[in-house]
Prior knowledge:
By secondary structure, chain A is an alpha+beta fold. Chain A is 25% helix and 29% strand.
Amino acid sequence: MNSTYLDEVRDPLLIAEDWMKNGKDVAIATVVETWGSAPRQAGSHLVIDAEGNFHGSVSGGCVEGAVVAEALDVIGSGKAKMLEFGVADETAWQVGLSCGGRIKVYLERLG
Amino acid sequence: MDPYVLKTLNAERRARRAAVLVTDLGDGRDRVVREGDTVAGELGAAIERAFRTGLSGSVEAEGRSFFLNAHLPQPRLVVIGAVHISQALAPMARIAGYPVEIIDPRSAFATPDRFPDVPLHAEWPQDVLARQPLDGYTALAAVTHDPKIDDFALKAALEARCFYVGALGSRKTHAKRVERLLALGAGVEDIARIHSPIGVDIGAASPAEIAVAVLAEVIDAFRSRGLQRKGEAA
């Protein structure tokens, strides 16, 4: 029985640690602020490896593609980025939040 | 994120200990703060709030911008007694976000047929709790009415600082229970933490209604951890 109630298969931070142990380069995205109706609360994670594999979520699937693309940059440069998504964003057609909310995502390299 | 910080954070989460990951959004530096660690100033107050509420968020402190990610263990409810009340309590509590495990050495009570989809231990509490210790993010409700089964678990729950400890029984039954727990070496102040008669007073009559009353009391205890209760003196 798993009395910790951690989901070993789907928990993004456990997966990130596992990837790291297997020698992969990893980026971690974290929702740090939300305004209005946002699908994932502050603290939610998306983890990405250098091949573009990812686990977890920072939205209901609306902006994950954009975060994954940025993550490859961050893995390369090692420089953290703050990303903002929302309907007011000029890229709304591609990656806006259809729910009308706004989110701020902190994207950093592991190590 | 620092690889060592990630390892430390995951180790805390696997051990069911609360931790707050503090990230300086200016320079990206991060660290893990454990519950009970002392952090000074505005940042310390914000971290304390994160532990209490379990909410993550950005804070401005000491002229810098931090993100506090609160990792609290999932609260859970251990029920001693595979009785009628538990049959109603298990699904209700699970829906409310408090997964339930049931312990009852009486194998006639603890049957999967009576408790579909509930982790069930037809064993003595001392054996189960030796394998799976209680902790501060666990609630324990003892509802067998049988001192041989309930008493050990109650004392273990007090020692483990379970956020909620409740015991079924009238005031008279509880008075006798207090005597027994004192004889077992439990402290007076600890014993006073036991909720008995069990459940919020809503006039509950049926087993299912008593389950509602118990669940309400568990939620109240969890959401008010570390807060001054209304009407209580300092």
